[in-house]
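Record filed here:
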Amino acid sequence: MKKLLIAGAMLASFAAIQSASAADLALKAPPPPMWNWTGWYVGGNIGYSWGRDNGPVTFSDPVAGPLFSVNNNTRLDGVIGGLQVGHNWQIQNWVYGLEADIQGSGQRGSSTIVCPGGAPTLLTTPPGSNVLNGACTGGHVGDTGPFNVPAFPVTDSLSEKLEWFGTFRGRVGPTINPTTFAYLTGGLAYGEIRVTNNVSGTSLVGPQGVNGVAVVPGGGSLSNSTIKLGWTIGCGIETVISGNWTGKIEYLYVDLGTVSGSLATNIVTPAGNNLIVGYSSHVTDNILRAGVNYQFH
């Protein structure tokens, strides 16, 4: 009987211990799963871009060659926004990835370049004098002073717009903590650039040394678009917001290379030929944008 009582007490104690252990386990929540960046993601972004168009605008005579040139520097600023898709691979504390994006752009800019006219001096020099010529157009020398007319200037209104652009880039960087990583990025860039070129001026038509001159307005216009392939490099940081959603801030420098073109006008040069106006523009961009991604884990 005594042995039975001892055995019962031992069973009761064991049951109490088991019950207490089960209660302790129920109070302790399981640790959250460790975040891993490996997998596909899609997302969107919005930002602002500070672009530049830098290069010469040249006024030329088709026979005599260049007459006047100015280095033009135009700002191409505006809001951008678009979509991105990519894939990450995490190896220990490093994240590697590939990302492609396509962006709509409100970037545009314009500038005005003036080729100067002739000196506003009424001459009484003999017929054939060319001192009234401008850099791009011819002046008129009459038989008497009042019919000596200095050449008018030529104005070129040049505007450019980045219609859209995109990139295909690699990304690599370390994790700052399990849910945040910083990265460098770089790769290909591409985009469509539209250029509009409007030239206006005035030709002085009439034989030199003869009184009377016809003042004839002239010019021309050109609009074209070109898809360019270039490169990009930048950096960013991405962190988990909630659930499978992450947010990022990113900077990119984009170089889309050079766009160029020329326009033949009906404005008469000092040599008596039709003036040609050409441009060559090197287009670059500084982009700052914020985005969100949904990670497929």
About this structure: The longest helix spans residues 2-27. The helical segments are 2-27. Strands lie at 39-61, 65-91, 94-115, 154-177, 180-205, 214-242, 245-268, 274-296. Residues 38-296 form a domain with the Porin fold (CATH 2.40.160.20).
